């Protein structure tokens, strides 16, 4: 492989490869693993690495311009109304109450739920189809009953939203492109 690869050794038990959006390849390996063992692992995974690098390159090639601060403020305002209405619609269906609803711009999450029942949503959800917004709201509301991703949690999500896997797959496929549009603005909340 002709690409520079960063190797990080630590007190972990397993070896893992990460291909970042910048197309940097990072290997996290147990401290005791030899260079030869790491190289053999990389050789075994070269097809997977190439596929990930191709994906990252195609994302970069089709990347839309970063959102401006004004666009982010507009999305945040729209999300405050839209996602709150969805929470009001689905909370009784799930059978839960919620606390505060906060809209943020995040690079790693579409939503979150605290043990106190406060919900956080990413303003970029406003760039997603309505069904995806419904799915993320239902997902977070279901965490009010199951604060984990257990089988019981996913059963509850499916009971409330049969076919949620389509929206989940849409986010997996398209979410990275949306998050890239945060550019440098995504480092903080507006």
Rg (CA only)? 20 Å
The geometry reads as globular
Q: What's the architecture of the largest domain in CATH terms? A: 2-Layer Sandwich
Mean pLDDT: 90
Strand content: 5-15%
Derived from helix and strand composition plus strand pairing, the structural class reads alpha/beta
The count of DSSP E runs of length 2 or more, i.e. the number of strands, is 6
Name of the level-1 CATH class of the largest domain: Alpha Beta
- Indicate how many domains the architecture comprises: 2
CATH homologous group name of the largest domain: Metalloproteases ("zincins"), catalytic domain
Regions with little confidence, pLDDT below 50 for 5+ residues: 186-190
Helical content class: 40-55%
Per the CATH scheme, the topology name of the largest domain is Zincin-like
Tally of DSSP helical segments: 6
Q: What distance separates the N and C termini?
A: 42 Å
Largest sheet, if any? Answer: 3 strands, mixed
Instruction: List the strand order in the largest sheet.
Output: 1-3-2
Q: What is the subunit arrangement here?
A: single chain
What is the N-to-C succession of helices and strands?
A: EEEHHHEEEHHH
Structure description:
The chain is an alpha/beta fold and 190 residues long. It folds into 2 domains: 5-61, no CATH class; 69-187, Metalloproteases ("zincins"), catalytic domain (Zincin-like, 2-Layer Sandwich), CATH 3.30.2010. Helix content is 48%, strand content 14%. The protein has 6 helices and 6 strands. The protein has helices at 35-44, 46-61, 69-94, 130-142, 151-160, 164-180, and strands at 5-10, 16-19, 25-30, 101-104, 111-113, 119-122. The N and C termini lie far apart (42 Å).
């Amino acid at each position: 492989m002709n690409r520079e690869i960063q190797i990080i050794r630590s007190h972990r038990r397993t070896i893992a490869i990460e291909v970042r959006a910048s197309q940097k390849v990072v290997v996290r390996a147990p401290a005791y693993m030899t260079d030869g063992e790491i190289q053999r692992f990389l050789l075994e995974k070269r097809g997977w690495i190439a596929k990930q690098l191709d994906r990252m390159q195609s994302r970069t090639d089709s990347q839309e311009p970063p959102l401006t601060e004004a666009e982010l403020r507009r999305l945040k305002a729209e999300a405050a109304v839209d996602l709150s209405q969805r929470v009001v619609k689905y909370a009784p269906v799930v059978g839960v109450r919620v606390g505060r609803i906060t809209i943020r711009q995040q690079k790693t999450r579409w939503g979150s739920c605290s043990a106190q029942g406060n919900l956080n949503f990413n303003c970029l959800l406003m760039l997603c189809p309505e069904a995806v917004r419904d799915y993320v709201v239902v997902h977070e509301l279901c965490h009010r009953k199951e604060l984990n991703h257990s089988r019981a949690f996913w059963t509850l999500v499916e009971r409330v939203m049969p076919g949620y896997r389509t929206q989940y797959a849409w986010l997996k496929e398209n979410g990275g492109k949306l998050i890239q549009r945060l550019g440098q603005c995504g480092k903080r909340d507006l």
